[in-house]
Amino acid sequence: MYAENVSDTMLSKKVNTTVRIMQSYLIIHIKKMVLPAFGLLIGLSSVFYDFNTAWGNVPGNLTPAQQPPFHPYASAVPDNYSVNAAPPFFNSYVAENVYGTEGVYPQQAMSGGYLAMGNGPVFRQSNTIPPAQQRQTLVPRYPSYDHWSEGSDQPWLLQLMPQGLLFPSYLAGAKESRMASMWSKDENFGWVWDATLGGRAGLIRFGTSNALMPEGIQLDLEGAVQLRMDIEHDRDMMANDFRFGVPLTFGGRKWQFKTGYYHVSSHLGDEYLLRSGDSKINYVRDAFLFAVSQRFWDDWRVYGETAWAFNTGIETKPWEFQFGLEYAPIWPAQGFRGTPFAAVNLHLFEELNFNGYLCCQVGWQWRGSGNQLFRLGLQYLNGHDDQFQFHQKTTNKIGFGIWYDF
After folding, report:
1. Domain contains 15
2. What gap in Å lies between CA 112 and CA 88, rounded to an integer?
3. What is the pLDDT of residues 240-255, one digit of tens each?
4. Where does residue 83 rank: exposed (0-12), middle (13-18), buried (19+ CB within 10 A)?
5. Same domain membership, residue 110 and residue 221
6. What value, to the nearest 5°, has the Cα angle with vertex 239 and ends 181 and 24?
7. Residue 357: is its pLDDT beyond 80?
8. Residue 241 zone, left/alpha/beta (φ > 0; ψ -120 to 50; rest)
9. 287 falls within a domain
10. 225: which residues sit within 8 A by CB, 6+ positions away?
11. C-alpha separations of 23 from 28, 328, 398 in Å
12. Full residue range of the structural domain in which residue 92 is found
């Protein structure tokens, strides 16, 4: 009997050693694949953009010589432009689209005209352009990168429940409020299901009505529960983190800033507590934050954030920092074709001696007219666990994810 136990023990050790060697081999190769994956996605995006350019789907305005003649039922409209019904008036009207450009409708316009997607244009009578100088101007379906200069001709208006966010959520931010679901292989727990149920939306804005690249000042509300379930044990609830915040954001098309307050508290699941015997930790943060981000080159964005907690739990210390880089095209992500995306987020905490975790994502995205964002892709996380009840554990996770931002 003793010999059998020794044999079983040795076999178990050999199996565990083999599994750990395989995991280490996989982790090393995953690290080697992250940067090449970025390059591959960027290359695919460039090829995709060139393909659309070759077929005439180039973002931006056409010159007057390139514009087709106006007709209420015109059909020769480039793919980057849309046609819709104009207001049935005989007067000259100006369409102020969401990107700060103007399109003038002629006096003969009865039932047709070129309108922008997004929030739609605002119609008003043209009092500044003489009738002799009025011309038919197509309005782009997608924003032109030539219009990414700070400031626009759009008026600033007070808006309740505006579409879009002045300061978008971090794509690879594991603790952002959104709708998300992740199935991944965890180094410590095996197969786990991480889900986020929540979102972030604008409450009030004083600024432009552009949903894709708004300008102004905006007050948001955010909230989410971020939970983890153990797939290998009947999807037992392992832990959940609750988050609520009130961000105040301001800025333009290139530079954006964020400040505000948020609360985070973490709780251990009853099923996991009874099965594992682990003790829960008192993890609480009530913090003020400040962040800055910049769209520094076309579809690229870089950001940094710091937060200081004025109320903490026993295992929590005041300071935390985040840094990140994102590639997420605005055009032509609208429509069924979508575009690739890639994102990296580094999250550091004082209670971990300013260590933390690195989260990398690659995949495909689709963007709505109100700048809603739906993504599918792969995620790799290395470092300390992003679930605060297991914050002191180090881990490697890789899996498949679905994300939706309002």
Report:
1. no
2. 9
3. 999 999 999 999 989 9
4. middle
5. no
6. 70
7. yes
8. beta
9. yes
10. 196, 197, 198, 240, 241, 242, 243
11. 9, 31, 11
12. 61-141
